[in-house]
Amino acid sequence: MRDPSGPPGPFRRSFWRSPIRGPWLTSVFGLLLLVSIPVMFATGLLSYAAYNPDLSPLNDMTPDKGPLGFYLFSWPTHPIWLYRLTQGVHVTLGLTVVPILLFKLWSVLPKLFEWPPLRSYAHALERFSLFLLVGGAGFEFATGILNIQTWYPFPASFYTLHFYGAWVFIAGFVVHVTVKFPVMVRALRSRSFIGEMRTNLARTRPEPPAAGYLAPVAPAAPTISRRGVLAFAGAGSTLIALLSVGQSLGGMFRRTALLAPHNQSVTGVTAGTVGDFQINNTARNAGITAAETGEAWRLSVGTDDQAGHAPAVLSRADLLRMEQHTASLPIACVEGWSTDNQAWTGVRLRDLAALSGAASPSSVLVRSLQHGGGFNRAVLSGAQIMDPDSLLALRVNGADLSLDHGYPARVIVPNNPGVHNTKWVASLTFRS
Ligand SMILES: Nc1nc2c(c(=O)[nH]1)N[C@H]1C(S)=C(S)[C@@H](COP(=O)(O)O)O[C@H]1N2
Ligand SMILES: [Mo]
């Protein structure tokens, strides 16, 4: 086999000696990614839409998205479990795929040192697409995982970065799949999968160098079989899935989610008793004091209509005297964790809209009395306001909200990303 006389070391094919590296193994990992990445992309786009980014200006953290927002639609309130499902899939799959991605990158490592680095315009273009692909994948996985771990060392909003990063990644992905799909099919057909699953270490042979660039020209003796590598990657993926999916499944599986940081704080409504459930951000962390939420707390309910009357000012007792409605709803966070359905009780948002004088509101700006932090305001759509299960909740599971769950009042809207279910609400401003 030709071994181009590039610089010595990794730039020569003979440097890469793993006897199992080759087009077949790369294609098996490639096929797994080919199936899972589009699912992650689609659920990611849904998550982006779920934030209703067109509800300007507040919700719009990507004002320059241009045509990338082509598919946006008003995020529905039903089915109530939809965001819980799509985001659970997005995050769980994203974590599960990590070992596969790492093995895939290992399997194509010689390509990084291909010599000569650029052979033609077409080759240059292909390598540029790989730069978008590998860089985009690294960026998307890194930002996604850091976000789940609630560590935000980002220069800008996670949401903005992860969204634009996804488009860069998928552009590289589409070019790569277009170029490599026939190569993958050919490689997968070159060996029998069942046959490989029956091949132990002693009988493991390298793919012939003629099979493609990835096959070794000077193979070393094998130290693991192909089925061993696939089993190892599969076991890694399965373990990660098992240790994280519980945060989305809930119920008795919740305790298995050892890799999920949000599963660990349960300091809520009736702490320590049945009926309590985890919280994301504590009152203490948000800088909410008992004084602000005590007897002096008032809710301001108004419209942005300048000619309209002054906003109504309601105490918690006033709100409790209004018609109370109970809805069984989950909280589902962009980070993949979600609560099981809880029985939230409070005043319907549409009743508060009517009170403000906005009969058919197009949106509402919800403000928290929390000062800092990015999650202290949100805009909800007209459809979200009008859903009969959209509440300004005062109680949950038959008890007053605890301070950590958002006392004196919090928003809860069916199928709404958790971040828009504002806690410690101070004002509602309806727009018509
Ligand atoms: N005021 C305020 N509201 C907030 C938050 C916050 O930090 N401050 N966190 C949001 C996020 S990101 C989520 S997922 C939900 C979680 O609700 P929980 O903290 O009751 O679990 O509340 C949302 N409402
Ligand atoms: Mo969240």
UniProtKB/TrEMBL annotation:
Oxidoreductase molybdopterin-binding domain segment(s): 294-431
Q: Keyword Magnesium: yes or no?
A: no
Q: Which UniProt keywords apply?
A: Membrane, Transmembrane, Transmembrane helix
Q: Looking at the record's lineage, which domain of life comes first? A: Bacteria
Q: List the transmembrane segments.
A: 22-51, 89-109, 130-152, 164-188
Q: Which Gene3D superfamilies match?
A: Oxidoreductase, molybdopterin-binding domain
Keyword Methyltransferase applies:
no
Q: Which InterPro entries match?
A: Mopterin_OxRdtase_euk, OxRdtase_Mopterin-bd_dom, OxRdtase_Mopterin-bd_sf
Alphabetical list of Pfam families matching this protein: Oxidored_molyb
MF terms from GO for this chain are: oxidoreductase activity
Protein's name according to its UniProt entry: Oxidoreductase molybdopterin-binding domain-containing protein
User: What organism does the record attribute this protein to?
Assistant: Trebonia kvetii
